[in-house]
């Protein structure tokens, strides 16, 4: 079991496309923790694109993934399209305050209540 955990913790942006394909096919997942990988913005784009119409996903953890401001449009699109997501953790990435405020504004404009990094919006 330990080798599986180590492999999961070494997902890079190059493997994110393959992972995204697998996640898109598994419609039973409700919680996905991809924290502390090195997805970067490009990998984040693939993951969020695959999960935006996921029928059961309620909680997604992407903290510590070397995500930068250029990923904000992908994150906004994800939260706008997702019908089920309630909690998104993007802590410990490289997002500026202005990008975080933009994202929080987008999330608050939607009808649902969200938790972003542990804070209810």
Write the layout of secondary structure elements.
Elements (H helix, E strand, L loop, with lengths): L1 H7 L4 H13 L5 E3 L6 H12 L7 E3 L10 H10 L5 E3 L7 H13 L5 E2 L2 E2 L1
Parallel strand pairs: 1-2, 2-3, 3-4
Antiparallel strand pairs: 4-5
Helix pairs in contact: 2-3, 3-4, 4-5
What does this structure look like?
With 121 residues, this protein is of the alpha/beta class. It has a single domain (2-120), classed as Leucine-rich repeat, LRR (right-handed beta-alpha superhelix) (Alpha-Beta Horseshoe), CATH 3.80.10.10. The protein is 45% helix and 11% strand. It is built from five helices and five strands. A five-stranded mixed β-sheet has the order 1-2-3-4-5, with no helix packed on it. β3 (87-89), α5 (97-109) and β4 form a beta-alpha-beta unit. α3 packs parallel to α4 (72-81) and α4 packs parallel to α5. The longest helix has 13 residues, at 13-25. The chain is globular. The relative contact order is 0.15.
Brief overview, please?
With 121 residues, the chain is of the alpha/beta class. The protein has helices spanning 2-8, 13-25, 40-51, 72-81, 97-109, and strands at residues 31-33, 59-61, 87-89, 115-116, 119-120.
